[in-house]
């Protein structure tokens, strides 16, 4: 693969098309040469991942993605492979037609795809059907082919984008290839890093096709992928007062666990002091389970006020409820104008009574909460997660974290980062409460909102992966993340 200093940058489909056009118009690289480079990169990936493969089946669409497939087929023939190549149509367009001719000149035979004949037996199937051009559900005949490829259980290599996956949004409006490996070309497409893409991309590789870095001049990446990070070492003279005081507010009757998880995560993430404002009935359990938390029973705003005055940062929402008690505490806390992290019922109350924030604020909704905050459906949120997270940050003048596979972080100016870590085992109760506490602790230790959200989301997801590596994903508990969270925060080579 061609190494690139831009491997952490994500681009929209329109931006990648602009880069491709620049390579042709400004650099004078013919489109067929870009296809040749893409085919060579993909064939090299095939050989690297499946070194014993000798029979390959290639499925080509009518456009440039199909052209990449034709040229890969020609390379495979020249290397002595048995190549079965199927085309969706009887003719190809533009450079793809030239590529088709080269495959035939190499001795290949193009067969029309027919569901009647079924899939051939192959060591690897190569998806070169649609690429970045598809933003709709595949037509029924092609959807049937995609389904057959997925159901066949044999390895699949996708060229540029798994067919059926929207390269801009990460969603699949219909059937889509679930690849074992995807080789993306020129630049990373943002849709391959969030949403449903997690189930379709497999191992993702990038080849820049040896295009120079100056090709990107003037084109600002749409988003970036988070990199491993931690906090710098503490000064040896540090004391608890220099590491911030978090006040976690929540834990209505029956939900003491949520606020305990939030508070304990804030401690494990390095806050010097963590107080908890909760129902009186929760105090014995909290003090018994985690005496380092300074738990206070509050029956209303008057009891909350002195706790607010001693705190630096608020973690508002875990287990708060939406009744009179939770609503009163929510209003009192927001009216203080303090730095805060807002989650769970804190967000549900915000959806009912919207306001914009002046102080540093991080909101951490899952898609359901995001739908309520933006007055949309969950389907609308998931249809374009990038648009949704930017809308959240703008509407509330906050740093927004849209949780899910490939969690997104946005600021009010439109900057977006994508989390590449995390696993399905984290889809359990309490994980969001941990994230709230972690981000609040980072704010309390001096991180500004964007940095706290990015670092907190990354640490949370990496701790989840570390915990899953020790026993598996299924059955993972939120508290399993606390030990790896601690050593990740103290890792000096993150």
From TrEMBL:
Keywords, sorted A to Z: ATP-binding, Isomerase, Lyase, Metal-binding, Multifunctional enzyme, NAD, NADP, Nucleotide-binding, Potassium
Alphabetized Gene3D superfamilies for the sequence: 3.40.1190.20, YjeF N-terminal domain
GO molecular function: ADP-dependent NAD(P)H-hydrate dehydratase activity; ATP binding; metal ion binding; NAD(P)HX epimerase activity
EC assignment: 4.2.1.136, 5.1.99.6
Domain YjeF N-terminal: 16-217
UniProt binding sites for K(+): 65, 127, 163
Family listed: In the C-terminal section; belongs to the NnrD/CARKD family.
Function: Bifunctional enzyme that catalyzes the epimerization of the S- and R-forms of NAD(P)HX and the dehydration of the S-form of NAD(P)HX at the expense of ADP, which is converted to AMP. This allows the repair of both epimers of NAD(P)HX, a damaged form of NAD(P)H that is a result of enzymatic or heat-dependent hydration.
Subunit-structure text: Homotetramer.
The protein, known as: Bifunctional NAD(P)H-hydrate repair enzyme
Native species: Dyella marensis
Source taxonomy: Bacteria, Pseudomonadati, Pseudomonadota, Gammaproteobacteria, Lysobacterales
